[in-house]
Amino acid sequence: xxxxxxxxxxxxxxxxxxxxxxxxxxxxxxxxxxxxxxxxxxxxxxxxxxxxxxxxxxxxxxxxxxxxxxxxxxxxxxxxxxxxxxxxxxxxxxxxxxxxxxxxxxxxxxxxxxxxxxxxxxxxxxxxxxxxxxxxxxxxxxxxxxxxxxxxxxxxxxxxxxxxxxxxxxxxxxxxxxxxxxxxxxxxxxxxxxxxxxxxxxxxxxxxxxxxxxxxxxxxxxxxxxxxxxxxxxxxxxxxxxxxxxxxxxxxxxxxxxxxxxxxxxxxxxxxxxx
Length: 275
Hints:
The protein is about 50% helix and about 20% strand. It is α+β, with helices and mostly antiparallel strands. The protein has three domains: about 5-85, Helix Hairpins, CATH 1.10.287; about 125-175, SH3 type barrels; about 175-255, Alpha-Beta Plaits (2-Layer Sandwich). A five-stranded antiparallel β-sheet has the order 4-3-2-1-5. A three-stranded antiparallel β-sheet has the order 6-11-8. The protein has a three-stranded antiparallel β-sheet with strand order 7-10-9, with helices on one face. The longest helix has about 50 residues, at about 5-55. The radius of gyration is 35 Å and the shape is elongated.
């Protein structure tokens, strides 16, 4: 018999033997993986609905759902490998050694992940809040497992690693901020009248929140006049626009009502040394 034909027959026989021996196991393994994929999707949908009730942000919910799906599918993949007769103990040992090396090489990333999980479950702030931390401040635009993104009024963004946030002193203004405006009036002005005009201006501006009520009063007695404190509350996105609008309204309304805004001045007396 031709040696080439004999080799082909041996290959066919070996392939047929392997198909008979491992074919059913491979089919069962594929069925297990497919079933695990369906179970992972079901668990993911259930977890997403549960996290939605906890009011977690959409990026965080998506990340947790994906991680859960991968974990569920991974468990079924392990079951499929066991069905094929793969020795998992050496594989697990190898993965453990490799994992230790990866953990040492990725300490910073793992620290961000741990901090991200802390932020997710303790929820010291939410998307849309205005915070000040780590010498930075801004509106929360995104919260991920690795970092938190802040937005500034100049439309720039600051990405802060989560490990720089956890354990730091955090100032959270929530979804509204308080303006700290001041306007001077002359000492001869009726302060009650001036404060009443300021209150009218605040009520007429749609950006100013009426609850909580604006804080008005006399903040100090300056050299040239009486300083009135004007501290209304506005939503975070309206902070810059409201500041400009209110300052303009105060200036124009005071001029129209005849309320003087004094200029800084000094009185200098010349003394005659020979007198």
